[in-house]
Design a protein that fits this description.
- By secondary structure, the chain is mainly alpha-helical.
- It has two domains: 391 residues, no CATH class; 136 residues.
- The protein contains 27 helices and seven strands.
- The protein has a five-stranded mixed β-sheet, with helices on both faces. Strands 1-2 form a two-stranded antiparallel sheet.
- Helix 2 packs across helix 5 and helix 4 crosses helix 5.
- The termini are far apart.
């Protein structure tokens, strides 16, 4: 480590002129090392070798939806239509284009799918790959911003291991792939710092490439929208401060490129809506949700609720008990190292206001401070986000801006560490002291940001997942290929409330193990042609007759959706069909084959 520190500083001095090719090879090696270490630390936290790779790391909520989309991609080529869901018509996702803003991530999933046809394996491998990808992106941007090699590696590891990463997990799969956020943060800082982004063809090509990556791995357009809003905001601020139109031109071109490329990714939905009309029921968003899913400063700085030190975890849990739980209460902690960076950036902002015309820190510190302050003003509950939501409520979870704030905060930490390392250079054993300082910060950050609670419960997941698989396999033995299964209780798709012990998208669980059956759940709400709501509302005897007449071959019941675990319903189904149910090994699911 001391040798690395010395070499990286020497390379940054004006008199050092290494061979260009050698410098590029060396930089590439360091970038690979950052990605490798970030991936390794992620593996040490997740410990995937303790479970089977073909068992998902999460089995409820949005995780089931993402798993179903990946399965559909592997089986049908892309995600817009899935004939095995929403029977008898089939599922379309043009009204709910969850992955339309992520074609780059979808292509990565398809690449993984070249080596396995198992969707759960693809989901798990994709999630594990997010660790080195985030580390690589963070390293490259930090180096571009002139942070030294060893400090960039340490900060990229800490950024990869943000609590945000583990809380999002496979439940918010594409949000976990936040490797585009450092790229967006760079564009924000470039506009603030008057760094050229357009002009020469190579520079323009690089900027367009950054915009394209952000637009095509946008986590459902969240990261693209956040980048565009921050760039637009800092462009206006910079233009007013410098009385120049250049920031508006530079920033406006970035925003325009991101928006244009994002529209390209959603073009199939526009074509569908032009033919079939729009569907307001599919994605209902309310302005007040921006308040519900906004950000609070306390949520950023408190320790996460899985902290290794129990009394620190209790601080978070006590705070969370005061309010209703939302994703913001769990996914936004920065950790102690990034919190130091955040507090420093806020201090820079305040001191700069108190000392106009007198710089209190380097320009990059000031730019990161301004970008952070703007992000906070937007994301805070009751902040600018509320006014944006009044016009465009589709982006509602503004707490997710915390991952941008985390990058700016760790950039500040990196700049402070470089300053400390340079100060130690003049001391005896300064390189060794610098190495220990850097390792100490890294160790404190890793231990603070992670905990055993970040590790999936592999044994419980395998028991549950294998039970579902065995159950569905038995159904498929009884039914012919292509047979339709009617699912109860009826739930609208997408985005419905939990019912009993059922979470949203739990009715996907049958499809996740199915080879060739067609399932009633998953038809897009707000579109005509779904017989399920009317059938499910009928008395049981009539329902069975009409379900059979509609071409379904059996009835699937999730007992968790009933207060009495479906005892009454199953008794009526048994009496009507004259058959006893097939029950899953864990006792949660049952199936009644209908008379042919």
């Amino acid at each position: 480590m001391t040798h690395t520190i010395s070499r990286s500083r020497a390379a940054s001095r004006p008199h050092a002129r290494p061979d260009a090719l050698g410098a590029r090879v060396g930089e590439g090696g360091y970038a690979a090392l950052a990605a490798l270490l970030s991936g390794l630390f992620g593996l040490l936290v997740i410990r995937p070798w303790e479970g089977d790779l073909d068992v998902p790391y999460l089995l409820h909520g949005d995780a089931n939806f993402y798993h179903s989309e990946v399965k559909g991609i592997l089986e049908h080529g892309w995600f817009w239509r899935n004939p095995n869901l929403g029977a008898p018509e089939g599922q379309q996702l043009f009204d709910y284009p969850g992955l339309s803003g992520d074609p780059l991530n979808v292509l990565l999933m398809k690449l993984i799918g070249l080596f396995t046809s198992d969707a759960a394996t693809v989901v798990n491998v994709f999630f594990l790959l997010t660790f080195p990808l985030i580390g690589l992106a963070a390293y490259l941007v930090l180096r571009r911003l002139a942070v030294s090699v060893p400090v960039s590696i340490a900060c990229s590891i800490l950024y990869t291991l943000m609590p945000y990463h583990f809380y999002r997990g496979e439940g918010h799969l594409v949000l976990s792939a936040y490797y585009v956020v450092p790229l967006g943060a760079y564009l924000v800082l470039a506009v603030l710092g008057d760094r050229p982004l357009w002009g020469r063809w190579r520079l323009t090509l690089v900027t367009l490439a950054l915009c394209a990556v952000i637009a095509s791995a946008s986590a459902g357009y969240y990261y693209a929208a956040f980048t565009a809003i921050l760039v637009a905001g800092v462009a206006v601020i910079r233009a007013v401060a410098t009385r120049s139109k250049r920031p508006l031109r530079e920033g406006g071109a970035v925003v325009g490129a991101i928006l244009a490329l994002s529209l390209v990714t959603i073009a199939p939905s526009f074509v569908y809506w032009a033919k079939h009309g729009t569907n307001d029921e599919a994605t209902q968003r309310l302005t007040l949700e921006s308040e519900l899913y906004g950000l609070k400063l306390t949520q950023l700085v408190l320790p996460h609720d899985q902290h290794r030190i129990h009394w620190l975890a209790d601080l978070r849990q006590d705070y969370q008990s005061w309010f209703g739980a939302t994703e913001a209460t769990m996914s936004t902690p920065l950790g102690v190292v990034a919190t130091v960076g955040l507090l420093w950036l806020l201090a820079v902002s305040l001191l700069q206001v108190a000392s106009p015309g007198r710089p209190v820190a380097s320009p990059l510190h000031g730019h990161a401070a301004l970008a952070t302050l703007l992000a906070l003003l937007i994301a805070w509950t009751g902040g600018i986000s509320l006014w944006i939501a009044g016009v465009w409520p589709q982006i509602r979870a503004w707490n997710r801006l915390s991952i941008y704030i985390a990058f700016f905060a760790l950039l500040a930490v990196g700049l402070l560490l470089d300053r400390a390392l340079r100060a130690l250079d003049s001391r005896r054993h300064g390189a060794l002291l610098g190495a220990w300082l850097l390792l100490g910060v890294l160790a404190v950050g890793v231990l603070d940001q992670t905990g055993t609670g970040n590790r999936p419960d592999y044994a419980a997941l395998e028991t549950e997942y294998r039970s579902d698989g065995e159950f569905v396999a038995q159904i498929e033995e009884r039914l012919p290929a292509g047979a339709m299964v009617f699912q109860l209780p009826y739930r609208t798709f997408p985005e419905t409330q939990a019912l009993g012990r059922m979470s949203d998208y739990d009715l996907m669980r049958g499809y996740l193990h199915s080879v060739d059956l067609r399932w009633s759940y998953g038809f897009m709400k707000g579109r005509p042609g779904d017989p399920s709501p009317a059938l499910a509302a009928l008395p049981t005897g009539q329902m069975v007759r009409d379900v059979a007449a509609a071409g379904f071959s059996g009835v699937y019941v999730d007992r968790f959706g009933y207060d009495d675990r479906a005892v009454k319903l199953e008794g009526e189904l048994a009496a009507t069909t004259g058959r006893q149910p097939l029950v899953s090994p864990n006792g949660r699911l049952s199936f009644f084959e209908l008379p042919g």
